[in-house]
Design brief:
single chain; 175 residues; mainly alpha; 3 helices; 2 strands
Amino acid sequence: MSRPLFAITEDFKQLDQMLDQLDQADIPYEEREQLEASLMAWLQSLNDEQRDKVDAYCWIVKQLEAEAETAREVAREFQEKVVARERRVELLKGRMLEHMIAIEQEKLVGHKMTVKVTKNGGRLPLVFSADVLPEEYFYTPDPLPDTNKIRAALEAGKEVAGARIGEQGKHLRIR
């Protein structure tokens, strides 16, 4: 039966401790050879078990990555459908609204549906020309840190209060 990866990790740690203790112990030569042979057999067994576990983990990771990519593609296709359907709805509603305005009808009754022209709710739309508006009617977003400038200063050896270069992260690459 396959053991969890953390159990294999613990066995490697235990084996390492036993090898360290063996190096420090005062054991007769014959016994030392037998112990070393047993420990080396155990090491070989752990290495084989680890190889199997690495392969299993990597196959699962590859499968999950493939499934995620497929799901991402399906999601993209559905998002495209959402956009297309919403555009089609707006087009059809727009045509019907144009028709009703052209024939000056506020209400049309079909066999099963009724359509009414109604005013939009909420505040009246604001119409303006930005190139003519006085400056007082513009706002500037909150200032953001210039990360390129901060990085350049830190790399040049300058101290920047509240900033430092962090440590590079690690990740697995599966081939």
